[in-house]
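Table S2 (continued). Query chain:
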Amino acid sequence: MDIALFHFPFHAMCWSIFTDGQMHSYNMHLSIPVALLFFEFPRTALSTSIAGLVLLVVGSIEAKADVERVSGIEKVVVLSNLCFAAPLGVFAAEHFSAAQGISRFVPKFMPWPLFWTYLVGAALLAASLSIATKRQVFWSGLMFGVMMFLFVAMMDLPGTLGDIHNRISWTLMFRELSFGAGGWMLAAATLDAQHARGRSVLVTIGRVVIGVTAVFYGVEHFFFPINAPGVPLEKLMPLWIPVRPLISYVTGAILVVAGAGILLTKKVRMAAAYLGAWILLLVVCIYGPILIVSLLDPSTAVKVEGINYFFDTLLYAGTVLALASAAQSSLPGSSQGLKPRLEEYSTRR
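Corresponding output:
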């Protein structure tokens, strides 16, 4: 008896069984979500979802011991690597599965755009694994930061200066700058007392970039109170989310206050820790439901958008938490309000 798979509609699998030279068809009905997940899920959405899930699991396993070792808000601070690594894995998968589309954004003066797209994807994948497993984080964080700053110099800055009245261009440029600074914060957190000068330089750069970005984003929340919070881009909060303006105003106030504290070196670590915790809460409570709804939508574009917004905001949370981790003992007042119990955690990375 030969069995052949005939076709895969949304709701059923139809098998064709050949016996004695004749074909007999049988239907094995599945629920729509199961069939959709395994047979109709778009390649980009599927690959990025799998990458994000795998990196979240790996990062959670690596972070478990650190979470158990510390207390209070420090339990959130030690999640910086997890929050940073998972999005990089997602964006790496996106570079491989949607390479043709992404290659169009490579600057025109650079040859072989597809090559650079795959190279960046490979770099993101390597960095995500390094940061998630806490192996060679200094180099992966440092080089990721260099890459992001190069992106800003070659793409974001020229585009922003070419349309200075476009707030989205400014928002994206500050986002890329803060992500680059976040990579440097991960690198700085690995440096011990023998490299205090280098750590101080990196933290100072990161503090300025992340602080300015936080204040800028905070102000934007008051002008656009129904946009999705955290990184205020075009997406609006869905109507089914209650008290949307209140969420935005509270987020804006936290961003401005924390950003000012970071810039003025007033309890830098505490400000970054609580800001990162709030952004992480937004990821879980706002972007988590948005992600679920997006994945159930039949549109590929909606699925990918939901995934990108979730992990983009998670990366921003990881960036701010990385500053909280790196700022320990690097700046005056950086550890005020928090128990200095992360020394062992920092040396392990």
